[in-house]
């Protein structure tokens, strides 16, 4: 079931300049900034500038340019953070079962230490 985009979510407000962020980079299609509650030494969020609820919504409705722009931004952020060689993890929660907290697509870039297993065994 598709969820409705909330134009007052925190990331929409950051994109409109209503809430400040510690910007890492900005492109035509994406904004990257430091997470306010980092879960690793490097924890950067990369969000599309368009109003997309989650990865499902984004991959269904975004233009080819938006999709390429977002994923190129993720790679550039990782390289700028010096994470490409030792390694990094990207994560995007999609929907309630994945515990998505903000209804605007966001990709976490984690790095700076060994990150352990992807998931704990069920």
TrEMBL record:
Source taxon at top rank: Bacteria
Alphabetic keyword roster: Hydrolase
Residue ranges occupied by any HIT domain in the UniProt entry: 10-120
Motif, Histidine triad motif: chain positions: 104-108
GO MF, one example: hydrolase activity
PANTHER family the record matches: HISTIDINE TRIAD HIT PROTEIN
Entry protein name: Diadenosine tetraphosphate (Ap4A) HIT family hydrolase
Source organism: Azospirillum rugosum
């Amino acid at each position: 079931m598709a969820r409705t985009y909330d134009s007052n979510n925190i990331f929409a407000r950051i994109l409109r300049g209503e809430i400040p962020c510690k910007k890492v980079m900005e492109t035509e299609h994406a904004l990257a900034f430091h997470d306010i509650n980092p879960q690793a030494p490097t924890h950067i969020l990369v969000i599309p500038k368009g109003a997309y609820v989650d990865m499902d919504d984004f991959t269904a409705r975004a233009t080819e340019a938006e999709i390429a722009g977002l994923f190129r931004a993720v790679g550039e952020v990782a390289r700028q953070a010096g994470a490409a060689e030792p390694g990094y993890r990207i994560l995007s929660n999609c929907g309630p079962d994945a515990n998505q907290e903000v209804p605007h697509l966001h990709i976490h870039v984690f790095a700076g230490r060994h990150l352990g297993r992807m998931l704990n065994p069920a």
